[in-house]
Amino acid sequence: MATWWIYALLSAVFAAATAILAKIGVEGVPSTLATAVRTVVILVFAWGIVFAAGHHREIAKISVRTAVFLALSGLATGVSWLAYFQALKLGPASRVAPIDKLSLAFTIVLAAVALGEPITWKLALGVGLMVAGALLTLA
């Protein structure tokens, strides 16, 4: 069985492809329209997987708390995508993507505050280096 890091690596590879494909796709189109088209594709794709796996039978088991947090996550994703597509429309993908990945630092801080996850010195150093690297892409 695959471990979490294999999925995380796949996520990174496909996120890289997303940046390039989106940069090409947003040319000559309003960024909000590009985001909406992308969202429809994701919606159809995700629900196709849900039905193919038979997970649609689990919908009734979703608690109100879970539904609220998933909805809030969806709203945050929507705002993130709108901002990302606008950034890609205005700037080079090679600079937009590293700045977008500063979400790593924000995630670690939010995970510590909201979830009580520890921040070790190794984690802090690694994130600091990644943030420095992302900022260096602007130079």
Q: What is the total tally of β strands?
A: 0
- Mean pLDDT value: 93
Poorly predicted sequence stretches spanning 5 or more consecutive residues = none
β-sheet strand percentage: under 5%
- Gyration radius (Cα, Å) is 17 Å
Structural class: mainly alpha
Largest sheet: none
Percent range for helical residues?
over 70%
The tally of helices reads 6
Give short descriptive properties of this protein.
139 residues; mainly alpha; 78% helix; 0% strand
What does this structure look like?
This protein is 78% helix and 0% strand. With 139 residues, the protein is mostly helical. It is globular. 7% of the residues are buried.
Short description:
It contains 6 helices and no strands. It is mostly helical and 139 residues long.
Annotate the secondary structure layout.
Blueprint: H1 4-25, H2 31-53, H3 64-90, H4 93-100, H5 103-115, H6 121-136
